[in-house]
Amino acid sequence: MDRTEIRAVIKFFHSEGKTATEMKPRLDAVLGNASPSFSTVNFWVSEFKRGRSHTIDAPCSGRPKTATTPEIVDKIHDMVLADRRIKVREIVEAVSISYERVVHILHNELGLNKLSARWVPHLLNSEQKRVRAQMSADSLEKKVLFHHDNAPAHSSAIAQEKLSKLKFEILPHPPYSPDLVPSDFHVFPKLKTFLAGKRYQTNEEAMEAVNEYFGDLEESHFRRVGVEKLEKRWTKCIELRGDYVEK
């Protein structure tokens, strides 16, 4: 199934009132490794909501388009907001412009930079820096019981209700701060290295491999390199007056 046919399937699901979140598992089950990323699915759902009827790319001659238009910038911005882990090549495929132009738009037009595998503002404003520094200082003064990165699944009403019942003390987390999340600066990069070059036929095989990977790790792997390093990053964030902690 080529990408035009996949888009037609997304269009059909959209006509049935399905959301991108509902579509993705069904596409994964049928297409496996050929399934589009969530950001790509979400992009095409947004396109069809805007009234787009066709599923083919706009015709172009020779090399990919390099012109920057407000519409293209807005589309790329929407895709990044929907999935801050989206890859440049996925954006290139979705908007049909050159790789170099997408990079230019991300860095120069939108002011974004990749930090701990997530797109974040290249430069934080003074208020964002103040919040990061203050939350880092507050975190160093209390015992951490539960820390999450404000992802929708973590901050949903159901999750918050459960945490309240468990009487967990929730540690505040500033926005645009993957450098202050152990899973982003430590766990996921190493997992990505472990999975590099491997191919799995089903989601179940991939899940089993990931479970085995984590099962073989010592507890100190998470405490020494993850949690304890987080305290050092909080301190570094304060020293930098809220700016990004690169290392």
From TrEMBL:
PANTHER family: MARINER MOS1 TRANSPOSASE-LIKE PROTEIN. The lineage of its organism: Eukaryota, Metazoa, Ecdysozoa, Arthropoda, Hexapoda. It comes from the Eukaryota. GO terms for biological process: methylation. Gene3D superfamilies: 1.10.10.1450, Ribonuclease H-like superfamily/Ribonuclease H. Keywords: Methyltransferase, Transferase. Residues 3-51 form the Mos1 transposase HTH domain. GO terms for molecular function: methyltransferase activity; nucleic acid binding. This is Histone-lysine N-methyltransferase SETMAR. It comes from Dufourea novaeangliae (Sweat bee).
